[in-house]
């Protein structure tokens, strides 16, 4: 029906609304928030959500690049949900807030996607 | 060569760096700036860059959703380049800054992509 197409809720979200949104575990514990998104210039695809962790698990002010496909939005929490335990989080690839992740190093990106068991956004290892 | 993969400049850009970046015509005239990006939640693809126009051509403070594929970055200007003339710009689909574009209306999105002659981000009309 035409009406369905006209009235269905849209599937789009604003970048400046994602930035700052909380990231919580399925049990509701807050891990941190989304600092920014990293976008592939050529394909226009979001490759990473950069998770900012302020002292969670005593980890300091670190940034963790998360493959976008690993996050899902939970309307109940009004937050992104990340199912990750302490061990996985502590060992996850991260970088200091005043430094930059080496986004040009494909082998580092491969390791990151293998870590989260997510197919790489560029199509394959 | 492995070294090429390791050292090539990355193809990723940060969402909060895109926001606020100027949009200029090929001749350097400033049209406005990118207010935000609209992202398809399911595919993770950037669908629109929302262009903020502050009084350019006497158009008032309007927002124009531009298909992402229509913009290209020009390092010389440190700005996005949009090849659009006065007539096309004045007639382009826009919305007032205090209102929201009806992102849920697929027929409106179709009209927008036809206007800019860009294939729709969801795959086809």
What's the SSE blueprint?
The structure is a homodimer of 125-residue chains.
Chain A: H1 2-7, E1 12-14, H2 15-18, E2 22-24, E3 30-40, E4 46-54, E5 61-67, E6 72-74, E7 79-81, H3 86-91, E8 95-96, H4 106-116
Parallel strand pairs in A: 2-7
Antiparallel strand pairs in A: 2-3, 3-4, 4-5, 5-8, 6-7
3D structure, described in words:
The structure is a homodimer of 125-residue chains. Chain A has a seven-stranded mixed beta sheet. Chain A has one domain: SH3 type barrels. Residues 1-7 of chain A have low confidence and may be disordered. The relative contact order of chain A is 0.17. Chain A is built from four helices and eight strands; from the N terminus they run αβαββββββαβα. The first copy, chain A, has helices at 2-7, 15-18, 86-91, 106-116, and strands spanning 12-14, 22-24, 30-40, 46-54, 61-67, 72-74, 79-81, 95-96. The radius of gyration of chain A is 16 Å and the shape is globular. By secondary structure, chain A is α+β, with helices and mostly antiparallel strands. In chain A, a hairpin with a 4-residue loop joins β6 and β7 (79-81).
């Amino acid at each position: 029906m035409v009406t369905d197409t006209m009235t269905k809720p849209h599937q789009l979200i604003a970048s400046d609304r994602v930035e700052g949104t909380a990231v919580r575990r399925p049990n509701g514990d807050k891990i941190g928030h989304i600092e920014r998104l990293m976008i592939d210039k050529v394909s226009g695809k979001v490759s990473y959500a950069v998770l900012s962790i302020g002292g969670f698990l005593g980890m300091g002010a670190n940034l963790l690049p998360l493959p976008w496909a690993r996050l899902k939005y939970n309307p109940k929490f009004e937050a992104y949900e990340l199912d990750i335990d302490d061990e996985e989080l502590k060992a996850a690839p991260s970088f200091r807030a005043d430094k930059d992740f080496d986004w040009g190093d494909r082998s580092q990106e491969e390791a990151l996607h293998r870590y989260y068991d997510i197919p790489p956004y560029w199509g394959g290892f």
